[in-house]
Task: structure prediction
Amino acid sequence: MIDGVDRRRVQVFDRHFFRSTEAITRIGEGELGGKARGLVLLRDLLGSAFAASRYPDVDVYVPKMVVVATDMFDAFMARNHLYGVAASDVPDDRMAETFLRAELPAEMVGDLRALVEEVRTPLAIRSSSLLEDALFRPFAGVYATKMVSNNQPDADTRFQRLVEAIKFVYASTYFGDAKHYARAAA
Result:
């Protein structure tokens, strides 16, 4: 449990995304990052403060989302042997290229494919690191966010764009600005 949020309070991703009653689901068994933990807390707070029985005409909710847990990031880094390049001072474009050539863990690929099969609306791919909302050294806004239009007619293209966006956001955690911020915040 981190910051009052036990990852078990977030259901495992259901490949029938729109049929699921859960607003927030997760891919993986690891921890949730700062943004994700905050949104889970907000979901719980809104659920209790704006109960439908008390406010039948008010519709307040956290939009549906899928969180990729930290174990998937760890597996991506380890299986592709990326820690060496991540620790180096290669330029951001080379860092991004290296991450884009790497393979995502098979454990998450099927779930991502199922997601793009059902979802055809824009997607925001955001980091949600464990450091994101640290009290004394918050990293919010340091890592990249990628918007994916997700409106291509074929699922293969939508899937490829989603995978590229995830890899780019992963790479951004090792970009020069992020490393400089980490050193300055230490």
Notes: The two ends are 24 Å apart (CA to CA). The beta strands are 11-12, 24-27, 65-68, 123-126, 145-148. The longest strand covers residues 24-27.
